[in-house]
Amino acid sequence: MKMAALCSEFGDLVQIKKQLISVISLCKERGLLHSTKWASELALALDPLPKDELPPSVPFTEEDAQDLDALTLAKAYFDLKEYDRAAYFLKGCCSQKAYFLYMYSRYLSGEKKKDDETVDSLGPLEKGQVRNEALRELRVELSKKHTAGELDGFTLYLYGVVLRKQDLLKEAVDVFVEAIHALPLHWGAWLELSNLVTNIEMLKSLSLPDCWVKDFFMAHMYTELQMIKEALQKYQSLIEAGFSKSTYIISQIAVAYHNIRDIDQALALFNELRDQDPYRIDNMDTFSNLLYVKSMKPELSYLAHNLVEIDKYRVETCCVIGNYYSLRSQHEKAALYFQRALKLNPRCLGAWTLMGHEYMEMKNTSAAIQAYRHAIEVNKRDYRAWYGLGQTYEILKMPFYCLYYYRKAHQLRPNDSRMLVALGETYEKLSQQVEAKKCYWRAYSVGDVEKMALLKLAKLHEQLNESDDAAQCYMLYIQDIFSCGEQLEHAEVSTALRYLGQYYFKNKLYHEASLCAQRCCDYNDAREEGKALLRQISQVRDQIETPSADLFAPLSNNNTPVRRVSPLNLISFTP
């Protein structure tokens, strides 16, 4: 959406503030705590309203008045998580508000019993058949009301949740869209819908109301679908439209940068977020992932201790402690804390994935596979779980399984070089060299994170006796490494220099061969070969050297798209 159009939607921030205050009241009355929290955080980011501009309370109907006492009592029981008791006193009430709370109490009662039974009877990885027994009855009752057109926006949302829980996903999508049209300001319905959207085509096909909340939804969806550039543009537009103080938006931008592995930018935003909201626990598991990747032990230790002081029984706290122990290579303890996180919330995606990683470290492949499969059940868009399954089957030497899971990961992250390199390695094992070459070249083209794609492509050309292409790839690899100014993997750089030295020597380019041989002498594992090559070159120095420009004249007919680089360019870079 263009900025002008966005500003027109967000032109009246006072009206948006009034809408947020109204929906906060509506959600709070119905026990929808996460939607209340989201709307409250956004409302705080906007300027306060004068007393005479505050929105009026929702008018009472005659049914509301009749149900008031029962509803007040039931809401007190609901807040104390006595769901069966709340439902008992709401039975027979007629108002929309009371009916929603009655059905919602029954649903949450079933969920609580299911979770208790799961924790009591099953290990963290066992695939039990525990079900919410209330779902079938709820679906039948809500379906009748839906057919009669008697459901409001909140009850439509609950009906959608029940359908999703019963794996009736297509019907759930339709009901959530209907719920959003009935009540566009209810963030919970948008969020539930986001979990069912699998790709950009499906997102475009949805008929959604033109409301300012849609921009928040689209930004969230772009992040989920790994369309990070679009997500960041959308969030920037929201900031410019008036939500610059929103901690929700800062957290989402930080998550977006985390997803594209812009670690420094993400860390800076998370630190800013903690300055603004020091007791925040939401998203701190993602923050701990970044600290883990950067091996920032003191900072991760401080974060873990800080969160334990705030609330040690939160899922995010358990994940942070798990990451801390994992960084200290105490994988059994790490797995234990991820298991604790899953007891608190069996649908915690990050905990399943991280636990899979820990089981991989402990060489427990069967447990790792189960953990990754659970992660995929929670969210089929989690590329880390698909990639983890690929790695697990790679250890088990099952390349066809590897290929399937790496392809899935690549579809979710088409521009992630790690997925492409993994695919290339698998194709190599399956003797599909043409496909392997394409993957390695693509990995280099999209920005090779680990600087391995060109090296693997060069070695593949070398195995296939495609010496011209191998030399080109080795040259690009060395130039890439030296130009980045990174710490060099000496063995790999020396491998490239050894090959290039021999290649130039065979092509009678003794000057370039001599330079490569001298460079080889800088590395312990290549020193003897470098000296031997220098001796060979000195024996033929009296011969006429072939001009450098002729080096790539007899180029091979191989289809790998290789950039033509003068061999002398290599010499201008120093390690």
TrEMBL record:
InterPro entries: APC8, TPR-like_helical_dom_sf, TPR_rpt. GO terms for biological process: anaphase-promoting complex-dependent catabolic process; cell division; positive regulation of mitotic metaphase/anaphase transition; protein ubiquitination. It comes from the Eukaryota. Gene3D superfamilies: Tetratricopeptide repeat domain. Pfam families: ANAPC8, TPR_11, TPR_8. TPR repeats lie at residues 315-348, 349-382. Residues 15-254 form the Cdc23 domain. One of its GO terms (cellular component) is anaphase-promoting complex. Keywords: Cell cycle, Cell division, Mitosis, Repeat, TPR repeat, Ubl conjugation pathway. Signal peptide: none annotated. The keyword Protein biosynthesis does not apply. Pathway: Protein modification; protein ubiquitination. PANTHER family: CELL DIVISION CYCLE 16,23,27, CELL DIVISION CYCLE PROTEIN 23 HOMOLOG. Belongs to the APC8/CDC23 family. This is Cyclosome subunit 8. It comes from Anabas testudineus (Climbing perch). The lineage of its organism: Eukaryota, Metazoa, Chordata, Craniata, Vertebrata.
